[in-house]
């Protein structure tokens, strides 16, 4: 697939690494073009592109910015009607120990409102960057789960295909409003991983019958 990654932080970098390794055509953009260029140079097969129009022609856009920069980043990239946006953001407080919005809405829903027509799917927000960068093997034959929630079946299937191409197990989490549940799961992961000192190996794995 042709995939544009917006953002060069820990999650953006992990996505570029894994997506290029899986054979996808990856474009990366950021507010600081030099960071996008450095990241692309480190991963053969990726290319740095200007922010303007970065979403055009992409099969999917991975939104790997902070929540506060999400809408402006998508608008700058030209995301709009028909753009599949994989929203990995979490609306975290400054100390990363809480969420700034929730209960009656979610970051994903607010992003969808801010970019009308975009087909937003919540995914990967419960996966630590370190886990994403190293791969999905949870040990003992268990894989880390990626939850996908969207009102667009096309967006959901696109996110599923990308996650599975990286080796993750995918759990259908229903409509986009269920991001209201997924974002607090990410907050709990962060508390367990950092606040409680259990490390980034903490990752959601659901016990399922075959």
From TrEMBL:
InterPro entries: NAD(P)-bd_dom_sf (IPR036291), P5C_Rdtase_cat_N (IPR028939), STEAP_metalloreductase (IPR051267)
UniProt keyword Oxidoreductase, yes or no: yes
Keywords on record: Oxidoreductase
Oxidoreductase keyword on record: yes
Domain Pyrroline-5-carboxylate reductase catalytic N-terminal intervals: 2-91
Domain of life of the native organism: Bacteria
This protein's name: NAD(P)-binding domain-containing protein
Species for this entry: Ramlibacter alkalitolerans
Taxonomic lineage from the root: Bacteria, Pseudomonadati, Pseudomonadota, Betaproteobacteria, Burkholderiales
């Amino acid at each position: 697939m042709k995939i544009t990654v917006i953002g060069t932080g820990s999650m953006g970098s992990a996505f570029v690494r894994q997506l290029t390794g899986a054979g996808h055509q990856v474009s990366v953009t950021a507010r600081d073009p030099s960071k996008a260029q450095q990241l692309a140079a480190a991963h053969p097969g990726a290319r740095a592109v200007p922010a303007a129009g970065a979403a055009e022609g992409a099969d999917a856009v991975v939104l790997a910015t902070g929540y506060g920069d999400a809408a402006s980043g998508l608008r700058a990239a030209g995301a709009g009607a028909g753009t599949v946006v994989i929203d990995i953001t979490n609306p975290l407080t400054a100390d990363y120990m809480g969420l700034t919005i929730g209960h009656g809405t979610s970051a994903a829903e607010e992003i969808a409102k801010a970019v009308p027509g975009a087909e937003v799917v919540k995914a990967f927000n419960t996966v630590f960057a370190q886990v994403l960068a190293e791969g999905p093997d949870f040990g003992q034959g268990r894989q880390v789960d990626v939850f996908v929630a969207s009102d667009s079946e096309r967006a959901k299937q696109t996110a599923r295909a990308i996650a599975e191409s990286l080796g993750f197990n995918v759990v259908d989490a229903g409509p986009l409003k269920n991001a209201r549940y997924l974002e607090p799961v990410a907050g709990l992961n962060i508390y367990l991983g950092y606040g409680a000192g259990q490390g980034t190996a903490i990752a959601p794995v659901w016990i399922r019958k075959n």
